[in-house]
Amino acid sequence: MKVFCGIDWASDHHDIALVDTDGQLVARARIEDDAIGLQQLLDLLTEHGDGPASRIPVAIETSRGLLVACLRSTNRPIYAINPLAAARYRERHTITRKKSDHLDAMVLANILRTDAAAHRQLPADSELAQAIAVLARAQQDAVWDRTQAGNKLRSHLREYFASYLAAIQPILGGLCSPVARSLLAAAPTPGRAARLTRPQLRAVLKRAGRQRGIDAEAERLHTALRVPQMHQPPLVEDAMGRQTLTLLRKLDAACTSADELAEAAVESFEQHPDAEIITSFPGLGFLSGARVLAEIGDDRSRFADARALKAYAGAAPVTRASGKSRSVRVRRVKNQRLAAVGYVWAFASLTASPGARAHYDRRRADGDRHIAAQRNLFNRMLGCLHHCLTKRTPYNESIAFPPHPAPVLAVAA
User: Fold this and answer.
1) Is the pLDDT of residue 408 over 80?
2) Any long-range contacts for 402-411 (C-beta under 8 Å, 24+ apart)?
3) 407 belongs to a structural domain
4) Contact 40, 60 (CB under 8 A)
5) Cα separation of 113 and 71, whole Å?
6) Is the pLDDT reported for residue 58 higher than 90?
7) Domain shared by 232 and 158, yes or no
8) What is the pLDDT of residue 409?
9) CA dist., res. 25 & res. 94, Å (int)
10) Which pLDDT does position 92 carry in this prediction?
């Protein structure tokens, strides 16, 4: 008897439902989110035919958590069902729109019974690939947090300290640079900044790690921070300076987290056997390569072909046709993290690969806007990446972008 398992996940407990090939409920249970509950689940599966040769597949509405990690270690098929898809399936089983945890577990089990082929299993990635995914995603989150914290601080500084923003504009990294943050910590208000002496500015630059051109930079900052500007009332300006220090601490924490996680992600990525192939592509460094590997994994059976990978990344368009109408649109449902690093990859490859630059220029000449041309280039690069990872061969510029023959002009007789 073939059995399918559905798990309605919650924060502190989980509802289990087992159904057979006829859709009949053969077992149900509620377990706690702990080791005892996990053992109860494994015992329940064993009672209904689960074994090393034939694992009972499991459907659950999440791909993360301790329960999923422990079930993955048993080498069983696990399907992470989108909650929106599960809600649509629920309407097939009840028209009264009733909802319960037990019903949701049965719906998930019946999804596997009827439409398992339409859903993707969790990939069988290696432990190292899963660790890289944790670090790379955390680093990307830290970068987004850093950007948000920087935007909040910049918006606040525009209200009372415009001369500081003008002074740090030439500094590489802008507000997130160590020099800019050290300078703001030393003088969070226009009045205190105007009183900074040249020796104090040199000390700030050295404390931030600056090693060259200290005297010239101190002189530039000394002049820039004394440019006349509009002022808030003194008490208000002092209060806004205190708020600046609070926002600055958040920015410092985000910058430190991003840097430390980037170092850890790169260190783990360098140990992976796919790192050499991924970094052979123009525009992909160790950090961006770690982000790519984190999203595509190292389970080569995950994507049947390059088209599946392109659709997963959102690089392939969506064609909608009905009768005589036909439209080609941008794919909105995609892996947002992979799409984000894809634009960085495509942009960086423009200066690192003559073939990529020529491909981008052709798309622009055909009428594509900048983003559309970059997305098309990312689509091309993903096809090459799928081929190289499958064949275990590094990137080859002449194969990826073969030279186009020069057009032959007809000569009039």
Assistant:
1) no
2) 404/358
3) no
4) no
5) 19
6) yes
7) yes
8) 56
9) 16
10) 75
| CA-wise closest residue to 331 among 349, 309, 352, 346 | 309
Got the DSSP string for 45-74? HHHTT-BTTBPPPEEES-S-SHHHHHHHTT
CA gap 398, 87 in Å, rounded: 49
Q: Which two tokens stand for residue 410?
A: 């007809």
Q: Judge whether 140 and 228 are in contact, CB under 8 Å.
A: no
Residue with tokens 């989980």: 14
pTM: 0.85
Token representation of residue 408: 């032959």
User: What six digits make up the tokens of 296?
Assistant: 């595509």
Distant-in-sequence contacts of 49-54, Cβ < 8 A, 24+ apart:
49/1, 49/3, 50/3, 50/76
Whether residues 191 and 110 fall in one domain:
no
Beta bridge partners of 28: 17
- State which amino acid sits at residue 85: A
Boundary (domain end) residue, out of 267, 291, 318: 267
CATH number at residue 39: 3.30.420.40
Per the structure, the complete domain to which residue 145 belongs is given by 132-267
Here the tokens at position 4 are 């399918």
pLDDT at 406: 57
pLDDT at 62: 87
Query: What pLDDT, in 10s, does the model give residues 260-299?
Result: 999 999 999 999 999 999 999 999 999 999 999 999 999 9
Would strands 325-329 and 3-9 be described as parallel, antiparallel, or unpaired?
Answer: unpaired
Cα distances (Å, whole numbers) of residue 313 to 64, 241, 327, 344: 20, 44, 20, 13
